[in-house]
Amino acid sequence: MPLLTSDFTPSLPFKNGHFNTVYRPLFMKEKSNYTRKRIFTWDHDFIDLDFSLVNSKTLAILIHGLEGSSESKYMISTANELNNKNIDTVAFNLRGCSGEDNWLLGTYHSGKTEDVHFVINHILENYNYENLLLVGFSLGGNLTLKYMGEYVAQISSKIKGAVAISVPIDIASSEREMDKIKNKLYIEQFLKTIRLKVLEKSHKFPEFKLDKQKLFKSTKFKHLEHLYTVPVFGFDSPEDYWHKASSKPYLSKIDRPTLLINAKDDSFLAEECFPIREAQNSEHFFLEISQYGGHVGFITNFKQHESRWLEKRISTFIFNTILKTF
Question: Is the pTM of this model over 0.85?
């Protein structure tokens, strides 16, 4: 306990993990209803927050994945689902992901929970919500889980729980998985956008000595981590970053209802990313492993308004477990 049995049963084409992974970003139609608020950080930078409000006393903070944003389809569809269930949402754009480059050399990484803590404290100080929830996807899910465990002694009582989806909780094993040929197209797309961002940073900050030849020859996340993440954020090596940024060591510390949903056919995740033992030994950390779903997919069929299993699962856990507990 609490190891949950998943009821996700997609139609035939969506039983293919790659199909389910790419279908949402390529074919799902989502319309956002955001109001943007820019907040300024302690280190003289900014973070853009996109609110979608229905005059609720409960707010869900949504955190996107690698190179995503508030405009990612899963962010919009989750905001709409929760709004329909009378929950306000705020989509947290990680630094450099809101459509405008942030002001500092450093942007974000998988373990940068100080930004999550800052945003939560801003909301606590400036808004009058009774309940706060965290919902994170992929990299944003790792931030969510790590925050819930790492900051357990500091978490406000208003934070009632969290949901995380398709999370590489053990970054080292996930990166080994991403290096496999099955993920070649995905990683090429990720690297294409990250390379350009790193190159732009080197132009804005000439004191940052970037080896541009190595940058454009990079074929793995590890290469970019060696060139950018490690020196900019003060890690000793990519391996040091993987170890310090992974959320898996923090799962046992979580002290309020938190759900992780990972699919067996998620090509980004290794066996180490399915923390069965941690869930069995916890009263608060719930794990749901579906047979299918891909990476942040979980689409059931081609019918636009009947296919959103993931969004409904998030709202069900919020109402039936998180809010019901308090």
Answer: yes
* Distances in whole angstroms, Cα of residue 75 to Cα of each of 55, 169, 266, 273: 19, 20, 19, 22
pLDDT of residue 307: 80
Are the C-beta atoms of residues 142 and 249 closer than 8 Å to each other?
A: no
pLDDT of 1: 60
Q: How far apart are CA 171 and CA 178, in angstroms?
A: 10
Q: Give the mean model confidence (pLDDT) for residues 295-315.
A: 92
Alpha carbons within 13 A on the beta-carbon side of 82: 35
- Rounded distance between C-alpha atoms, residue 207 and residue 210, angstroms: 9
> Could you tell me which residues are beta bridge partners of residue 40?
46
Q: What sign does the CA torsion over 104, 107, 111, 113 have?
A: positive
Mean pLDDT of 153-177: 97
For residue 292, list its beta bridge partners.
Answer: none
Kindly state the average pLDDT of the residues 84-88.
Answer: 98
Tens of pLDDT along 110-120? 999 999 999 99
State the first-to-last Cα distance of the chain, in angstroms, to the nearest integer: 20
Are the C-beta atoms of residues 61 and 72 closer than 8 Å to each other? Answer: no
Cα 173 to its chain centre, rounded Å, is 17
User: What H or E segment, with its residue span, contains residue 312?
Assistant: helix 309-317
Q: In what order do the strands lie in the sheet with 35-40?
A: 3-5, 285-290, 258-263, 159-165, 131-137, 58-63, 88-92, 46-52, 35-40
Number of H-type helices and E-type strands within the chain: 13, 9
pLDDT band at 235 (very low <50, low <70, confident <90, very high): very high
